[in-house]
Amino acid sequence: MRYEKPENVADAVKLLHAETGVARILAGGTDVLVQLKAGMVEPDLIVDIKDLDGIKDITPEDGGYRIGAAVSGARLGEHAGVTALWPGVVEGFELIGSTQVQGRATMVGNLCNGSPAADSVPGLIAANAVARIAGPDGTRDCAVIDIPVSPGKISLAKGEFITSVFLPKRPERASDAYLRFIPRTEMDIAVAAAGVSLELDADGTCVAACVALGAVAPTVLLVDAAADCIIGTKLDDASLKAMASACSDVCNPIDDRRGTIEFRTQTAGVLAKRAALIAYERAGGRT
Amino acid sequence: MALDENGKRIFKQVGTRPARPDGIDKVTGRAMYGADATAPGMLFGHILRSPHAHARIKSIDTSAAEALSGVKAVITSKDFGTPEDESVRDVQDNCMAGDKVLYDGHAVAAVAANSLAIAKKAVKLIKVDYEILPHVTDVDAAMQAGAPLVQEGRGLDDLPAGMSENVTYHFEFGHGDMDAGFAKADKIIERSFKTAATHQGYIEPHACLASMGIDGKGELWCCTQGHYYVRELCAGIMGMETSQLRVTASEIGGGFGGKTTVFIEPVALGLSRKAGRPVKLVMPREDVFRASGPTASSSTDVKIGMTKDGRITAAHATFRYQGGAYPSGTVQFGAQSAFAAYDLDAVQTIGWSAMTNRPKEAAYRAPGAPMAIYAVESVVDELCQELDLDPLDVRLKNSAHKGTKSSYGPTFDDIGLEATLEAAKAHPHYAAPLGPNQGRGLSCGFWFNFGGNTSVSMNLNFDGTVGITEGNPDIGGSRASISLMAAEELGIPYEKVRTIVADTNSLGHNDVTDGSRVTFAVGLATIKAAREAIKIMCARVAKIWDIDADAVYWEDGFAKPSGPNAGSFDPMSIEEIAAISAETGGPISGHHEVNADGAGVSFGVHLVDVEVDPETGATTILRYTVFQDAGKAVHPDYVEGQMQGGAVQGIGWALNEEYIYGDDGRLQNPSLLDYRIPVASDLPDIDTVILEIPNPGHPYGVRGVGETGIVPPLAAVSNAVSRSIGLRMSALPMSPPRVLKALTAKG
Amino acid sequence: MKNIHVSTTINGDPTEFICAPDESLLDVLRNRLALTGAKEGCGTGDCGACSVTVDGRLVCSCLVLGAEADGVEVETIEGMADGDKLHPLQQHFIDKAALQCGVCTPGILVAAKALLEKNPNPTDTEVRYWLAGNLCRCTGYDKIIKAVQSAAAEMRGE
Fold first, then answer.
1. Can you tell me the distance from the alpha carbon of B661 to that of B322, in angstroms, rounded to the nearest whole number?
2. Same domain, B270 and B308
3. Which residues from C are below 8 Å from A29, CB to CB?
4. Which of B56, B370, B502, B580 is 20 to 30 Å from the Cα of B352, by its Cα?
5. pLDDT tens, B657-714?
6. Per-residue three-class SS string for B475-523
7. Is residue B582 part of a domain?
8. C124 lies in which domain range?
9. Interatomic CA distance for residues B289 and B298, integer angstroms
10. Which CATH class is domain A183-282?
């Protein structure tokens, strides 16, 4: 195994593209080192991207924010601007692992790990976040929802890697929230999860919504049918109940050591309902 | 050894809370644990483990591993002999599989190399040809005739029809007329329970450093609860005389029973013997889960009858435990504990134990008792609910007391159960209001406590300070409590005493640090050793004063004349006596060895409030109070610590901890990510109330306190959850999917 | 696999070492630098026994490559006391009996110090969530939380 720490994006792409064996990107390392330890992967090349320009920066852009691929959870959580604009995205990311893991883990790493239970992904998808990808053919943008393909697999081509994620601007009466279910209060992988983003009009009616579910299907699901249940409402009990069942309807989870199909299906709706209410209140709505 | 002054002794130091002697080392990172040792020329070991739950080993080809540069030794079971003793043979087989692998994670071969990286690489080059056999991991399935047979020739001699040869142990005991008892009951509840296997979950993985010389002499440094037992087992497996193997216990990073046996030490010794170099072996966490520890899982039927006014008329229980791939007797402790809290006219208990394709069970804090008492206390709670009776009143009404003939035979002496129940009843926690979706549960708990073989030396230094040499690894502050007892007895400041845990060559045999025996038995031997030294000191002083030895007595660190008739002498301090000891007959020491009995049994009562989220089945612990009889709390901080730590391990057992096996017989969750021990944010404060009902069998009244605390939480939490959701839960853990499923079924 | 030369600062001391590219910072500390205060409880970031800070950030040293330590400042338990003067957290852990076996203690102390530097006056709940990644199997956490709080009070001058 070689360890390389390139100083610019072009060199990083070159290294990744030229490697004939297994290459891994290292930013926070909280997944890669676990995989190394378990012998799940034996990379020939590790590319540490932490020296790349802007990779650790959070930059205002077009009323939103561009978040570098090596920004840790601890740093993002300390950023007042992002936390105010996209609190659900930040809280999803901050739920990953312990304080120690937060000191290193990155949102992009969480996304590229390809897990359907990745805590930062439902929030990013509900936010219509866009990933910027560097590769042998230059730079391209790709909606976050199009990155995960199946458990452990993402859509990036050889030599490509994500350099940042962009969170767009949003109207004044808008917010988001993320909730997950875990058996303990910390340290677990999500058994089921929901990210909800809402926009309200002046009287508190929901005019736009995105509902994304984690850990209930091979990839994070964006559930338009659930969003439709609350658009045009003030999140009354009936519409929330409809939304919860729309969520449960699309679940296609697995039985494993962390939860049952039945449990995941049931709690996904409950979490979506609760997350919607939190987002609604954050957006200035009152139920 | 009888209680001093009828339990009225006024203590000067026992009962205070001084700083522990190993504190500085442990807060600065200096303390040396199992994996922290190194030796010149040290190699690193790594073990190959079976991926199969049950398979015959057709062949092992180690040639490629041996050929790898940097590899110094490769061993398999062929490198060990066949010990005479069956239990030692089982331990050996568990450390290195013979003809068959019996569970996922069973060791098959091991490598020692110049680096861990090379050893790991070499392990991957070992080729094992397996013939996969059918497996069984559930206790009830394993007991059925026709179940896959884990080991041949180990079954009961008089096996009942319909039972598998996996059943290795059976007993029945009790007293009274069961039919008449149940006939008197107004309400009888009969229910079956299951509990999952749990792991001790110590944070320090097993680790050792072994060095075998070509002269057949061995040194072993390891984290263990009992280095004398390690020596016996390892010497037995290695075919050595015990005198040729010296074992030194490192600081130990938790054990809870799981470090009372060996898993890797004989392997390290075997590698060292073959390589001719010291070998360090550290278990990866995954292997700790797959191949060390766990406790038994259980399946239990309980039937209890009660009158309208809360008197238990008869009680019956059948316990079925699996202890992994080897015969195990833990079910006996469970069955004996099950009804210990009750004064019963009619009680019958039946126990069965079976082998399964799981790792060999190791002791876990009050082994066998938590799951047995869980089942009994659940049924008692349900009877209280059904009959609309206060659960504490019912327990008081039926509680065992001095003179009660216990279900397992012995008649109790002074015990603290009633006082403990009264304390719980009087506590504000019991009267505090509960909110919606909340419930309160309680349970009694019991542990026998052990005494056992103990050897302690006390040496008086020339400056009047004292060294205590004992042979039991200090898991939770025992050097502090032993120093306190020595200081109390000698009447000198705690700071003048230093207690160390010596190697196996320094003292006579000391039993393992288990059974909550150390503060009781080592404390008792320490007091006796100090008394012997006092006797010598008084005799030396008598010689100087030229009076009878009987005319000198000891008080507060001084030898004094016993009265006007003895003569008028200025008291001599321990410092003065020590300073001139060279002239009065040489160094002064006290020593005591004993196979201690009289370890008083210990009772506890736990109160817990929970809230259950009706939409997810998640349980939150809101409030928790532990009441426990310590006999005499020598260092109350560490008594409270035992009570709190035990309670939280029990909470984990009740809510989330479990060994999950797949259909393939492989352990699904061998990590601290998915084997979910409680984290700090899961818990409230754990409040404690120490009761002190002196143990008649110890000079200071000490009872062991280490184990009782893990016993009540299983039922206390289950009773609280059951009351909160209006449904009787009967399986552990009460993980959210299980609770939500029950709630959904209820509608 | 060619070893890498790393120049770093550990507990204020300039330090150089070589390590394999896949070697963790924890293994470097323990096996190459004789700093065995950080413990390996799991090697996968689940127990916190190997906690150190890197450039002031609390991390699990088992989830950091040794190679990544180049040019950074690492603080370990061995650097927590100032010569013969214990850090208040260390003293309060002894005084409040916040340890039993003590194997998780170095990690918890490093983590608690990082908390109090960021938040000198945390609530019990904040302490519990901050320390959720530091498993302790002996104490039930009760005395740990109380020791952190009493050390925090002393550090605030109360």
1. 14
2. no
3. 63-65, 68
4. B56
5. 999 999 999 999 999 999 999 999 999 999 999 999 999 999 999 999 999 999 999 9
6. CCCHHHHHHHHHHHHHCCCHHHEEEEECCCCCCCCCCCCCCCCHHHHHH
7. yes
8. 88-155
9. 18
10. alpha beta
Query: Tell me, what CATH number does B119's domain have?
Result: 3.90.1170.50
CB C3 within 8 A of CB C19: yes
Amino acid at C107: G
- What are the tens digits of pLDDT across the range A68-94? 999 999 999 999 999 999 999 999 999
- Tell whether C116 and C66 lie within a shared domain: no
**The total number of residues written for chain A in this structure:** 287
B744 part of contact set with chain A, CB < 8 Å: yes
The minimal CB distance from A258 to the residues B655, B674, B741 is found for B674
Task: Verify whether the Cβ–Cβ distance A257 to B678 is below 8 Å.
Answer: no
Q: Do B95 and B234 have their domain in common?
A: yes
How many CB atoms sit inside 10 A of residue C56's CB? 12
Out of B231, B251, B282, a domain closes at B282
Q: Are B17 and B715 in contact (CB under 8 A)?
A: no
The total domain count for chain B is 3
Q: Is the distance from CB of B424 to CB of B442 less than 8 angstroms?
A: yes
- ipTM > 0.95, yes or no: yes
**Are C71 and C23 contained in the same domain?**
yes
- Per the domain annotation, does B108 fall within a domain? yes
Chain B partners within 8 Å of A263 (Cβ): 617, 736-737, 740-741
Q: Is A37 on the interface with C (CB under 8 A)?
A: yes
Q: Which residue among C1, C45, C58 sits closest to A34, beta carbon to beta carbon?
A: C45
Chain A residues in contact with B676 (beta carbon < 8 A):
183-184, 187-188
Beta-carbon separation of C59 and A97 below 8 A: no
Domain A2-115+130-167, CATH 3.10.450.50 — does that match? no
- Tell me the C-alpha distance between B383 and B364, whole Å: 30
Same domain, C8 and C72: yes
- Rounded distance between C-alpha atoms, residue A283 and residue B498, angstroms: 64
